[in-house]
Amino acid sequence: MPALRINGKDHSIDADPNMPLLWVIRDIVGLTGTKYGCGSGACGACTVHLGGKAVNACQVTLAESAGHDITTIEGLGDNHPVQIAFAQGNVPSCGFCQPGQIMRAVALLKQKPDPEDQEIVEAMFGNLCRCGTYLRIIAAVQTAAGSGR
Questions:
Q1: Which domains does the chain have, with CATH numbers?
Q2: Cβ neighbours of residue 111 under 8 Å, at least 6 residues apart?
Q3: Is 16 in contact with 39 (CB distance < 8 Å)?
Q4: Do residues 91 and 133 lie in contact, with contact meaning Cβ atoms separated by under 8 Å?
Q5: Residue 40 in contact with residue 58, Cβ under 8 Å?
Q6: What pTM does this model have?
Q7: pLDDT per position in the chain (149 positions), as tens?
Q8: Distance between CA atoms of residues 19 and 10, nearest Å
């Protein structure tokens, strides 16, 4: 049984090692903040942190995840600066993509605390928003970075 550390808590998972991490997180562990969007890694709705890097959980298997710290949207808590900036910037329209967008933005800001606009656009490229709130997403990432450009 692979052991996973999700949001600081250890879980022994009895499942097919080829099961996508997304389904382990949602169906076995019961954390539903990570969303299923496309299942092919094209939309970013299922973005989580695996070993500190943003990944599409639908594209990573249980076996590949073992031994790495995993953080989901629930693992950020309720007062993360990116979450606050998204709320203050009125980013969510339908809100479906928001967990993945936030997780991608958090990973970006850990790597580059004060990104330029183009760096934000490039980092967020793999996360789609059907409502088209991209300008608000960029502004929220800037706010969270403290630049507010």
A1: 3-75 (3.10.20.30), 78-145 (1.10.150.120)
A2: none
A3: no
A4: yes
A5: yes
A6: 0.95
A7: 778 999 999 999 999 999 999 999 999 999 999 999 999 999 999 999 999 999 999 999 999 999 999 999 999 998 999 999 999 999 988 999 999 999 999 999 999 999 999 999 999 999 999 999 999 999 999 999 985 55
A8: 18
